[in-house]
Amino acid sequence: AIMAEAYMMDPADKIRISGEWLGVYIVQQVFGKLTDEHVLQVLDDYNKVTSEIKNKKAYLRTMLYNVVFCLGASTRNETLSDPNF
Q1: What's the DSSP call for residue 51?
Q2: Phi/psi at 82 (nearest 5 deg)?
Q3: What angle is formed at CA 16 by the lines to CA 15 and CA 17, rounded to 5 degrees?
Q4: Is 77 helix (H, G, I), strand (E, B) or coil?
Q5: Could you tell me the sign of the dihedral formed by the alpha carbons of 66, 67, 72, 76, in that order?
Q6: pLDDT tens across 28-76, in order?
Q7: Are 37 and 48 within 8 A, CB to CB?
Q8: How far apart are CA 41 and CA 58, in angstroms?
Q9: 77: how many CB neighbours lie within 10 A of its CB?
Q10: 48: Cβ contacts below 8 Å, ≥ 6 apart
Q11: Which residues neighbour 4 within 8 Å (Cβ) at sequence distance 6 or greater?
C-alpha cells in the first residue's frame, strides 16, 4: 500500500523520505527497482527493531527507499571481499 500510494501521486509532487522532501518521481523510480529480495530484507529488518516506531508508514517508506541502495552496496562489498573473486 505504501508503494502504491507513491505511484498514485503526481510525479511533480514532493514526498518525505528520511526527513527530507524528495520529488515523487525520484521515489517512484527507486521503488521501481525493488525486488522480492529487497522487500524481504525490509521485513526482516523491520521485525528486528526493538524500539517503538511512532510513524510506521513513514518508517517503512524510508526503509523501502533506502534498501535499494543498501542491499546493492552490501552485495558489492561481499563480492569484492570474496577471495575467489
Answers
A1: S
A2: -75, 120
A3: 115
A4: helix
A5: positive
A6: 999 999 999 999 999 999 999 999 999 999 999 999 999 999 875 544 4
A7: no
A8: 17
A9: 10
A10: none
A11: none
